[in-house]
Amino acid sequence: MPRLEVIKNPNPHLRRIATPVALDSITSKTNQKLVDDMILTMKKENGVGLAAVQVDVNQRLIVVLDDDEPLAIFNPELSNLSFAKVMSDEGCLSVPKVWGYVKRHRSLTWKGFDREGKAIGGRAAGFFAIVLQHEVDHLNGILFIDKVESYLETSNSQI
Ligand code: ZN
Questions:
Q1: 5 is catalytic
Q2: 41 close to 56: Cβ distance less than 8 angstroms
Q3: Residue 39: which residues within 8 A CB-CB, separation 6 or more?
């Protein structure tokens, strides 16, 4: 499993809208290897989430840590975003050495497909909800620096 190269801002590929993944291709060798390589890359880079666009694959696929367990979500969708927001301190593997506060919805409903092509989803709150918002933003060409309210000297959070 090779570690993938994470592309960095201002690479214009980070600004593309990622394409939905055909459900019958989720279990293909190519996509399974991509999931394995993305999980390895996320761990090696000490991230808690990684979107396929960050490794220059223009597909709607993210990997996230959910209670320290890696989870791949194909075609993730967020809905029922809470009115309540929280301030989240964030960094990003594609925006090195920049950290800042971003306003995020406190809770949301998410859905998508796991690496076996099974429909998954649920209600999320707290840090997991923040990570999902950060990663789905990547699939829509949005970086956290577009939304940052104030910058920080440093943070532990690399999403
Ligand atoms: Zn990021």
A1: no
A2: no
A3: 63, 70, 72
Gap from CA of 25 to ligand 1 centroid (Å): 25
**2 located within any domain:** no
Q: What is the CATH number of the domain that holds 49?
A: 3.90.45.10
Whole-number Å distance, alpha carbon 111 to ligand 1 midpoint, is: 20
Omega of the bond leading into 76 within 30 degrees of 0 (cis): no
Q: Residue 127: is it exposed, middle or buried by C-beta count within 10 angstroms (0-12/13-18/19+)?
A: middle
Question: Domain limits at 22?
Answer: 12-152
CB atoms within 10 A of CB 25: 12
How close is the Cα of 125 to the center of ligand 1, in Å? 19
For 18-27, what is each residue's pLDDT tens digit? 999 999 999 9
Number of domains in the chain: 1
- Centre of ligand 1 to C-alpha 14, Å, is 10
Angstrom CA distances, 5 to 85, 114, 132, stand at 33, 23, 21
Residues 74-127: tens digit of each pLDDT: 999 999 999 999 999 999 999 999 999 999 999 999 999 999 999 999 999 999
> Which residue is catalytic, options 5, 90, 116, 135?
135
